[in-house]
Amino acid sequence: MMTKFIYELQIVFELILIQCKQILPYWLGGTLFASIISVFASAKITQLASRIGNKRYSFVQLGIAAVLGVASPVCMYGTVPILSILGKKNVPQYILAAFMISSILLNPNLFLMSFALGSSLALLRLFFSLAGGILGGTLVFVFFRNTAFFNFDHFKSDAAQDKTKIKKHFVKDVLKSIRITLPYLIIGIVLTALFDRYFPPSLMDALFLQNKALSVLFMASVGVPVYVCGGGTIPLLGAWLDAGMSRGSAIAFMLSGPATKLTNLSAIKIMLGTRNFVFYIFYCLLFAVLAGLLTNFAY
User: Fold this and answer.
1) Are 235 and 269 a contacting pair, CB within 8 Å?
2) How far is residue 36 from each of residues 29, 97, 164, 169, 175, measured CA to CA in Å?
3) Structural domain boundaries of the chain?
């Protein structure tokens, strides 16, 4: 009995080592790149976004806002002060919506880590993160042109607070990022090893292969309670893809997860209020499902 336990433990440990070799280089590269942007470019990103002031609909400016959102390395609680500052500078709210949604869906660290799943899936994630911001901004322009979508009354937009981002020491920022993301990454790697060893293939067939459309819907729904940290989900997604999950299901999970992550939702709820918050949730889940179905159709 003890010999079998040791044997199983050894196999799981070997699977963990394999996952570490595959994932850690992308995680480390993404962490360093995100810290470089955080220390040296966050203020520039905010400055560029503040120059977007066209009240009329502009697809080009929406695209710029979405790109700046994806390039922003800060978490949602860092994005809120930025949005507040931009709102006080009369940046149109449909531009703010595009920036916010794209920033939530993807950041430089997560984009580089996604290459561990393959370059095509990483680029698809980038495309849909930008498209989600642009489409979301367009809907805000159409339906909230004469009403407020954001409410920043609860936030103080102190510019000095934003400037502290520049003064952060690079090493300190890297260590902070490692401290926040590494535990979730380790948990994801361990869960992946256990999944590879013990999850029944027949159940994988039932979940992901028998009906790919339902698989997309299932993964978009699973992303709501399961998604905690983007880096931690990368090894799990890799295992699920190897087991037969479609790329569309992976995309649905990668879009619905960060959009509905609990730590993000509390900040978003304060900014949007109840009615607009419901609009945001409905939009993000519907977009995740449609993006997943479109990906499966394309492949």
Assistant:
1) no
2) 11, 25, 15, 10, 12
3) 2-298
